[in-house]
TrEMBL record:
The keyword Manganese does not apply. It comes from Alicycliphilus denitrificans (strain DSM 14773 / CIP 107495 / K601). Pfam families: Methyltransf_23 (PF13489). Belongs to the methyltransferase superfamily. UbiG/COQ3 family. This is Ubiquinone biosynthesis O-methyltransferase. S-adenosyl-L-methionine binds at residues 39, 58, 79, 124. It catalyses: a 3-demethylubiquinol + S-adenosyl-L-methionine = a ubiquinol + S-adenosyl-L-homocysteine + H(+); a 3-(all-trans-polyprenyl)benzene-1,2-diol + S-adenosyl-L-methionine = a 2-methoxy-6-(all-trans-polyprenyl)phenol + S-adenosyl-L-homocysteine + H(+). Keywords: Methyltransferase, S-adenosyl-L-methionine, Transferase, Ubiquinone, Ubiquinone biosynthesis.
Protein backbone atom coordinates (compact mmCIF):
# COMPACT_ATOMS: atom_id res chain seq x y z
CA UNK A 1 0.00 0.00 0.00
CA UNK A 2 1.29 3.46 -0.86
CA UNK A 3 2.26 5.57 2.15
CA UNK A 4 0.55 8.53 0.49
CA UNK A 5 -2.96 8.07 -0.78
CA UNK A 6 -3.71 10.85 -3.25
CA UNK A 7 -7.29 11.46 -2.14
CA UNK A 8 -9.18 14.01 -0.07
CA UNK A 9 -11.29 12.24 2.59
CA UNK A 10 -13.87 15.02 2.37
CA UNK A 11 -14.21 14.45 -1.39
CA UNK A 12 -14.63 10.69 -0.91
CA UNK A 13 -17.27 11.28 1.76
CA UNK A 14 -19.09 13.74 -0.48
CA UNK A 15 -19.55 11.23 -3.28
CA UNK A 16 -20.15 8.30 -0.93
CA UNK A 17 -23.20 10.07 0.49
CA UNK A 18 -24.69 10.19 -3.01
CA UNK A 19 -23.59 6.70 -4.04
CA UNK A 20 -27.07 5.17 -4.12
CA UNK A 21 -28.12 7.78 -6.71
CA UNK A 22 -25.38 7.10 -9.32
CA UNK A 23 -27.68 5.22 -11.69
CA UNK A 24 -30.71 7.48 -11.30
CA UNK A 25 -30.66 9.54 -14.54
CA UNK A 26 -32.68 12.29 -12.84
CA UNK A 27 -30.41 12.58 -9.79
CA UNK A 28 -27.42 14.78 -9.06
CA UNK A 29 -25.54 12.59 -11.55
CA UNK A 30 -27.84 13.50 -14.42
CA UNK A 31 -25.12 15.60 -16.14
CA UNK A 32 -22.81 12.57 -16.19
CA UNK A 33 -25.50 10.44 -17.80
CA UNK A 34 -26.14 13.17 -20.37
CA UNK A 35 -22.50 13.74 -21.36
CA UNK A 36 -21.49 10.07 -21.27
CA UNK A 37 -22.53 9.24 -24.88
CA UNK A 38 -20.57 12.26 -26.15
CA UNK A 39 -17.34 11.41 -24.41
CA UNK A 40 -17.73 7.67 -25.05
CA UNK A 41 -18.02 8.25 -28.79
CA UNK A 42 -15.05 10.62 -28.77
CA UNK A 43 -12.91 8.05 -26.94
CA UNK A 44 -14.06 5.25 -29.23
CA UNK A 45 -13.29 7.24 -32.38
CA UNK A 46 -9.69 7.87 -31.33
CA UNK A 47 -9.06 4.53 -29.63
CA UNK A 48 -11.59 1.89 -30.81
CA UNK A 49 -12.56 -0.02 -27.68
CA UNK A 50 -13.52 -3.36 -29.21
CA UNK A 51 -11.12 -5.99 -27.85
CA UNK A 52 -9.08 -3.52 -25.80
CA UNK A 53 -8.07 -3.56 -22.15
CA UNK A 54 -9.38 -0.30 -20.70
CA UNK A 55 -8.95 1.32 -17.30
CA UNK A 56 -11.38 3.89 -15.88
CA UNK A 57 -9.68 5.87 -13.10
CA UNK A 58 -12.06 7.41 -10.57
CA UNK A 59 -14.91 5.35 -11.99
CA UNK A 60 -17.45 6.22 -9.28
CA UNK A 61 -20.64 4.26 -9.88
CA UNK A 62 -19.39 2.97 -13.23
CA UNK A 63 -21.27 5.05 -15.81
CA UNK A 64 -18.33 5.29 -18.24
CA UNK A 65 -16.86 1.89 -17.29
CA UNK A 66 -20.16 0.17 -18.08
CA UNK A 67 -20.53 1.87 -21.45
CA UNK A 68 -16.93 1.08 -22.49
CA UNK A 69 -17.52 -2.58 -21.66
CA UNK A 70 -20.61 -2.53 -23.85
CA UNK A 71 -18.41 -1.23 -26.68
CA UNK A 72 -16.41 -4.46 -26.41
CA UNK A 73 -13.57 -3.49 -24.07
CA UNK A 74 -12.37 -5.52 -21.09
CA UNK A 75 -12.75 -2.80 -18.44
CA UNK A 76 -11.33 -2.30 -14.99
CA UNK A 77 -12.85 0.56 -12.99
CA UNK A 78 -10.99 1.82 -9.94
CA UNK A 79 -11.98 4.23 -7.18
CA UNK A 80 -11.40 4.83 -3.47
CA UNK A 81 -15.06 5.47 -2.65
CA UNK A 82 -16.26 2.11 -1.30
CA UNK A 83 -19.97 2.86 -1.52
CA UNK A 84 -19.77 4.01 -5.13
CA UNK A 85 -17.91 0.83 -6.05
CA UNK A 86 -20.58 -1.31 -4.39
CA UNK A 87 -23.17 0.48 -6.52
CA UNK A 88 -21.06 -0.10 -9.64
CA UNK A 89 -20.71 -3.83 -8.89
CA UNK A 90 -24.41 -4.18 -8.17
CA UNK A 91 -25.34 -2.44 -11.40
CA UNK A 92 -22.97 -4.68 -13.39
CA UNK A 93 -24.71 -7.72 -11.90
CA UNK A 94 -28.21 -6.42 -12.47
CA UNK A 95 -27.50 -5.19 -16.01
CA UNK A 96 -25.39 -8.27 -16.79
CA UNK A 97 -22.62 -6.05 -18.11
CA UNK A 98 -19.94 -8.25 -19.66
CA UNK A 99 -16.19 -7.77 -19.21
CA UNK A 100 -16.18 -5.21 -16.37
CA UNK A 101 -14.61 -5.44 -12.91
CA UNK A 102 -14.20 -2.90 -10.14
CA UNK A 103 -11.38 -2.50 -7.62
CA UNK A 104 -10.88 -0.27 -4.60
CA UNK A 105 -7.29 0.81 -5.24
CA UNK A 106 -5.49 4.08 -5.91
CA UNK A 107 -4.20 4.75 -9.41
CA UNK A 108 -0.69 5.17 -8.00
CA UNK A 109 -0.77 1.76 -6.34
CA UNK A 110 -2.16 0.10 -9.48
CA UNK A 111 0.63 1.73 -11.52
CA UNK A 112 3.18 0.01 -9.29
CA UNK A 113 1.31 -3.29 -9.55
CA UNK A 114 0.47 -3.37 -13.28
CA UNK A 115 2.54 -0.90 -15.34
CA UNK A 116 1.94 -0.83 -19.08
CA UNK A 117 -1.12 -3.09 -18.85
CA UNK A 118 -3.85 -1.10 -20.61
CA UNK A 119 -4.55 -0.02 -24.19
CA UNK A 120 -6.73 2.89 -23.07
CA UNK A 121 -6.91 4.78 -19.77
CA UNK A 122 -9.66 7.27 -18.91
CA UNK A 123 -9.68 9.71 -16.01
CA UNK A 124 -12.83 11.81 -16.21
CA UNK A 125 -14.05 14.45 -13.77
CA UNK A 126 -11.47 13.41 -11.18
CA UNK A 127 -8.37 15.60 -11.40
CA UNK A 128 -10.18 18.58 -9.87
CA UNK A 129 -10.98 16.49 -6.78
CA UNK A 130 -7.50 15.23 -5.78
CA UNK A 131 -4.69 16.93 -3.82
CA UNK A 132 -1.99 16.12 -6.43
CA UNK A 133 -3.23 15.99 -10.06
CA UNK A 134 0.32 15.46 -11.40
CA UNK A 135 0.57 12.22 -9.42
CA UNK A 136 -2.60 10.92 -11.11
CA UNK A 137 -1.47 11.95 -14.59
CA UNK A 138 1.91 10.26 -14.07
CA UNK A 139 0.28 7.07 -12.80
CA UNK A 140 -2.07 7.00 -15.81
CA UNK A 141 0.93 7.32 -18.12
CA UNK A 142 2.65 4.40 -16.38
CA UNK A 143 -0.45 2.23 -16.68
CA UNK A 144 -1.00 2.64 -20.42
CA UNK A 145 0.98 0.66 -22.97
CA UNK A 146 3.51 2.55 -25.15
CA UNK A 147 1.49 4.16 -27.93
CA UNK A 148 -1.74 3.78 -25.95
CA UNK A 149 -4.28 6.51 -25.32
CA UNK A 150 -5.01 8.38 -22.09
CA UNK A 151 -8.12 10.59 -21.81
CA UNK A 152 -8.66 13.29 -19.19
CA UNK A 153 -11.57 15.63 -18.54
CA UNK A 154 -11.63 18.47 -16.04
CA UNK A 155 -12.62 22.13 -15.58
CA UNK A 156 -10.68 25.26 -16.53
CA UNK A 157 -9.79 27.83 -13.86
CA UNK A 158 -11.03 31.29 -14.82
CA UNK A 159 -13.88 33.68 -14.07
CA UNK A 160 -16.19 32.13 -16.67
CA UNK A 161 -15.66 28.63 -15.26
CA UNK A 162 -16.40 29.91 -11.74
CA UNK A 163 -19.58 31.59 -12.96
CA UNK A 164 -20.87 28.60 -14.93
CA UNK A 165 -19.49 25.50 -13.20
CA UNK A 166 -20.02 26.68 -9.62
CA UNK A 167 -22.45 29.61 -9.42
CA UNK A 168 -24.57 28.48 -12.36
CA UNK A 169 -24.49 24.68 -12.09
CA UNK A 170 -24.51 24.38 -8.28
CA UNK A 171 -26.45 27.41 -7.03
CA UNK A 172 -28.71 28.70 -9.81
CA UNK A 173 -29.60 25.68 -11.95
CA UNK A 174 -28.96 23.20 -9.09
CA UNK A 175 -27.60 20.67 -11.58
CA UNK A 176 -25.03 19.61 -8.97
CA UNK A 177 -25.03 19.65 -5.16
CA UNK A 178 -23.58 22.82 -3.64
CA UNK A 179 -19.93 22.26 -2.76
CA UNK A 180 -19.30 19.70 -5.50
CA UNK A 181 -16.40 21.76 -6.83
CA UNK A 182 -13.73 24.00 -5.35
CA UNK A 183 -12.56 26.78 -7.65
CA UNK A 184 -8.95 26.59 -6.42
CA UNK A 185 -8.74 22.97 -7.62
CA UNK A 186 -9.76 23.76 -11.19
CA UNK A 187 -6.97 23.18 -13.74
CA UNK A 188 -6.01 25.34 -16.69
CA UNK A 189 -5.35 23.49 -19.98
CA UNK A 190 -1.77 24.80 -19.95
CA UNK A 191 -1.27 23.22 -16.51
CA UNK A 192 -2.69 19.87 -17.60
CA UNK A 193 -0.60 19.97 -20.77
CA UNK A 194 2.50 20.50 -18.63
CA UNK A 195 1.53 17.59 -16.39
CA UNK A 196 1.11 15.39 -19.47
CA UNK A 197 4.52 16.40 -20.85
CA UNK A 198 6.14 15.68 -17.49
CA UNK A 199 4.57 12.20 -17.56
CA UNK A 200 5.70 11.39 -21.12
CA UNK A 201 2.30 11.89 -22.73
CA UNK A 202 1.84 13.63 -26.06
CA UNK A 203 -1.42 15.65 -26.13
CA UNK A 204 -2.95 15.13 -29.58
CA UNK A 205 -6.46 16.51 -29.25
CA UNK A 206 -8.25 18.95 -26.95
CA UNK A 207 -12.01 19.36 -26.95
CA UNK A 208 -14.33 21.60 -25.00
CA UNK A 209 -17.75 20.57 -23.79
CA UNK A 210 -20.60 23.07 -23.81
CA UNK A 211 -24.12 23.10 -22.42
CA UNK A 212 -27.26 25.04 -23.29
CA UNK A 213 -29.48 25.27 -20.16
CA UNK A 214 -32.50 26.24 -22.26
CA UNK A 215 -32.41 23.16 -24.48
CA UNK A 216 -30.57 20.83 -22.10
CA UNK A 217 -28.19 19.92 -24.94
CA UNK A 218 -24.48 19.17 -24.59
CA UNK A 219 -21.99 19.22 -27.45
CA UNK A 220 -18.23 19.09 -28.11
CA UNK A 221 -16.50 22.17 -29.46
CA UNK A 222 -13.19 23.99 -29.60
CA UNK A 223 -14.14 26.15 -26.61
CA UNK A 224 -12.12 24.96 -23.60
CA UNK A 225 -13.00 27.91 -21.35
CA UNK A 226 -15.04 25.77 -18.92
CA UNK A 227 -15.23 21.97 -19.31
CA UNK A 228 -12.61 20.36 -21.52
CA UNK A 229 -11.05 17.00 -22.42
CA UNK A 230 -7.54 15.93 -23.43
CA UNK A 231 -6.62 12.96 -25.59
CA UNK A 232 -2.96 12.01 -25.18
CA UNK A 233 -0.74 9.11 -26.19
CA UNK A 234 2.12 7.60 -24.28
CA UNK A 235 5.35 8.19 -26.16
CA UNK A 236 6.71 4.85 -27.35
CA UNK A 237 10.31 5.70 -26.53
Amino acid sequence: MNEFVNADPAELAKFSELAHRWWDPDSEFRPLHQINPLRLEWINQLSPLEGQKALDVGCGGGILSDSMARKGAEVTGIDLASKALRVARLHALEAQTPRVQYREISVEELAQESPGSFDTVTCMEMLEHVPDPQSVVTACAHLVKPGGWVFFSTINRNAKAFALAIVGAEYLLKMLPQGTHEYAKFIRPSELAGACRNAGLDVLQVRGMQYNPLTGRYWLSGDTSVNYMFAARRLST
